[in-house]
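User: Show me an example of a complex going from sequences to structure tokens.

Assistant: Sure. Here are the input components:
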Amino acid sequence: MARAVTTQRKTINTTVAWGIGLLIFFPILWTILTSFKTEAQAINDPPLFLFFDWTLENYTVVQERSDYMRFLWNSVIIAGGSTLLGIIIAVPAAWSMAFVPSRRTKDILLWMLSTKMLPAVGVLYPIYLMFIQLGLLDTRIGLTLVLMLINLPIIVWMLYTYFKEIPGEILEAARMDGATLREEILYVLTPMAVPGIASTVLLNIILAWNEAFWTLNLTAAKAAPLTAFIASYSSPEGLFYAKLSAASTMAIAPILIMGWFSQKQLVRGLTFGAVK
Amino acid sequence: MATRHSRSAARLMMAPAVILLLGWMLVPLTMTLFFSFKKYLPLRGGDLGWVGFDNYTRFVTSSSFWPSVLTTLIIVGGVLLITVVLGVLLAILLDQPMWGQGIVRILVIAPFFVMPTVSALVWKNMFMDPVNGLLAHLWKFFGAQPVEWLSDASIFSIVLIVAWQWLPFATLILLTSIQSLDSEQLEAAEMDGAPPLARFGFITLPHLSRAITIVVLIQTIFLLAIFAEIFVTTGGSFGTRTLTYLIFQRVLESQNVGLGSAGGVYAIILANIVALFLMRIVGKNLDA
């Protein structure tokens, strides 16, 4: 499609797109900037954009006063653990559905998807009650299990669409050469499936990290991840913009970076393969 | 090609996922149904016996039910309208030749990765605060009286916050779809003298219709369930109590489990109606 585009047209496109892009990104930029101000500068009238005394004070204060690292660690354990557990359970399931399909495969896949559509609030009390009785309320293991279950359908679906793209002929060739099922999975399938699994892991860590219904309702102090930690800033005392910004920046930075790497997978994962 | 041996192995490999999801679906669902037919107040007497469909009628006849339905519809509808319209425009813009396309795309997508509690609190305090918020400064700069966003324009504010979070999702999916459009078709139409608006209306939009449908359906399911954005901003006051939030309050705040469970059943039915349409599209795609 070698179509001549005038430089003028390209300049206009660039200007408009950058303007809109920066406008959409601005709340995040503003949060990051504010995190480096003192509390007094954060509410200065008129607002200060770049010319203020940059300080790292807020980051140390947030850590000292609220033990930020504990919440971060909870987030890491819960998001990482639920993803790992989900992958372990989903890989065999997706493998068998992609390579040994039966008449019911499609129904099973769609049914799995339907469990994802269950509104969380509809089962809030039963889960809450079970958590109390099993002693899982405000524990990392409890949240890890719940987040694994709510994301399992997406993991299975994503893996299924990736596995589907691996040509079946390669497996047949391996079988002809006498590979056993174990060897087939270990030496033929796994190397080809690694990129798909990696993307799935990435997307699911993002989803679990940002989950904010169960993490708010099933934790109190011990197992609270960053979502709940940030929510505790909703009833502030005194000056707190800069500290809120520092806490927020630390909470979103790792996911923002991971997210940028997973743009493509995001589309596939969140549309269940309907848009690629 | 599959032998009987590999078939039974396949079934075995599928079993853990199927059993877990089956349990995850059936056990809480059965309990919700069970509670919905009981008068059950854990803090005030506990299980007070069966009441038939009493909770179901009381939930829909309570004075907060219809306002919450209306709030839900406005929020879901408002966010859908904003994200789809702006999403289509942004996707078309991002598809044009320009310098630094990759960076612009990253800037536009970023809000999607911000956790809901962070985006809600940042908007609430640093933008919508009537004294120190940036919007208040902006209003004052133009000589206008700053707005008390979250109390005087509460629903609009929530819609704005949620739309900011979901615009990237719509844009990204629509952009992916636009990029799969055959550019020769557009060029041919251009050579035949079709004006830009006609090219958009007769070629781009029909091509996007499936992606738009998917965006609408998926977003509807997530938007019906928004919680944190309301929890940390208004706590359901100032007319921002959605159906989801109303059920949450009945169940956990006032501990009226029977009534809340009946509400939960309504929410499940509602979500399933939307899901049915989505599944049909996804299922069709599976055959292709």
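The lines above are the inputs; the final block is the predicted structure for all two components together. The CA atoms of residues 11 and 145 of chain A lie 51 Å apart.
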